[in-house]
Amino acid sequence: MESSDDEKDGHNGKCMGNGLRPTSANGTKFVNDVLNGTDEHCLENFRMDKQVFYKLCDMLQAKGLRHTNRIKIEEQVAIFMFIIGHNLRTRAVQELFKYSGETISRHFNNVLNAVMAVSLDFFQPPGSEVPPEIRDDPRFYPYFKDCVGAVNGIHFPVIVGVDEQGPFRNKNGALSQSVLAACSFDMKFRYVLAGWEGSASDLRVLSSALTRQNKLEVPQGKYFVVDSKYANIPGFIAPYADAPMGLVEYEGGIQPQDAKELFNHRHSLLRSISDRTFGALKERFPILMSAPPYPLPTQVKLVVAACALHNYIRNENPDDCIFKNYEQEGCVPPLLDFEKPEMMMGETVDVDVPFNAQEIEDTSQLRDSIAAEIWNDYVRDFPII
């Protein structure tokens, strides 16, 4: 019976050094104290404020998560959020909640599966309207009016068996899973593909995202911006490989020298939304930053679940202080060693993608037309002497 282990945890006959019996009431009291305290205390412990936490519990209950005789849903969710929000191992959580490792693990997996059951509800594809972040910024409008967000890849460390380590060893020598995400300018994930081996190229992962059953959808006539490790292909506009990625300081000051350089600078400002979105994700859920000791399928689920919860919290409380830390263009967190990007691949397409040569050429011409329009307006407003 599901509650049997929960009941045994509270009556194992052992005593703590301070004389307290390690009953489940200690874990329950901790959760109650947090939920009866301030929103800041809840955010610190469970990574979201109280009302957002309670609403999440209701949603997960609707998807089948159930109270046990001793552990209510709120405490089950608290255990899960405490683990992923503080990167704690099971033994450390046992000490706080006073349950066996088996019980902690069981409820962790139950909540993870419940979050996965609702995750698709939180990943909404972009619409066809012009994002306000572009529409209201003269640096980007009307040039990038058809841009709906940024696609980027990130590596998260993994633990795999010795026989599986080869494919998961990335170019930096670390074991990782490669994750592709499409982000919108409101700092939400629109699509996430996790679980690829760390040795897979970013373009190969993107190709998989475009051809699998649950594929990345790009609205007709729209595109995402991508960085130089991807190719310039339909639906994905990359920077020019033969121009600086940012503005260069010349003798007369910092100013673009040609259309390609100016395009790359504006493009990089738009693209930074993916780094900032990943930054908020990693700050809220630090378990992603060190390989968690779970089976690989669980490690993959954790990435998707964390992204779904990120979106859920962004929907419910967009003024959350963690999001506030990453809303400005310049607040991009430094990369850790295992996150360092691949070398620039240039303009070649060395992986099969579902586009023909003419479609790729049309995308190149689209980029050229955007760059020319930006440059012509820049020269008109700031004549180059």
Automatic annotation (TrEMBL):
<protein>
    <recommendedName>
        <fullName>DDE Tnp4 domain-containing protein</fullName>
    </recommendedName>
</protein>
<feature type="domain" description="DUF8040">
    <location>
        <begin position="25"/>
        <end position="116"/>
    </location>
</feature>
<keyword id="KW-0540">Nuclease</keyword>
<dbReference type="Pfam" id="PF26138">
    <property type="entry name" value="DUF8040"/>
</dbReference>
<dbReference type="GO" id="GO:0016787">
    <property type="term" value="F:hydrolase activity"/>
</dbReference>
<keyword id="KW-0479">Metal-binding</keyword>
<dbReference type="InterPro" id="IPR027806">
    <property type="entry name" value="HARBI1_dom"/>
</dbReference>
<feature type="domain" description="DDE Tnp4">
    <location>
        <begin position="165"/>
        <end position="311"/>
    </location>
</feature>
<comment type="similarity">
    <text>Belongs to the HARBI1 family.</text>
</comment>
<dbReference type="InterPro" id="IPR058353">
    <property type="entry name" value="DUF8040"/>
</dbReference>
<dbReference type="InterPro" id="IPR045249">
    <property type="entry name" value="HARBI1-like"/>
</dbReference>
<dbReference type="GO" id="GO:0046872">
    <property type="term" value="F:metal ion binding"/>
</dbReference>
<dbReference type="GO" id="GO:0005634">
    <property type="term" value="C:nucleus"/>
</dbReference>
<dbReference type="Pfam" id="PF13359">
    <property type="entry name" value="DDE_Tnp_4"/>
</dbReference>
<feature type="region of interest" description="Disordered">
    <location>
        <begin position="1"/>
        <end position="21"/>
    </location>
</feature>
<keyword id="KW-0378">Hydrolase</keyword>
<dbReference type="GO" id="GO:0004518">
    <property type="term" value="F:nuclease activity"/>
</dbReference>
<keyword id="KW-0539">Nucleus</keyword>
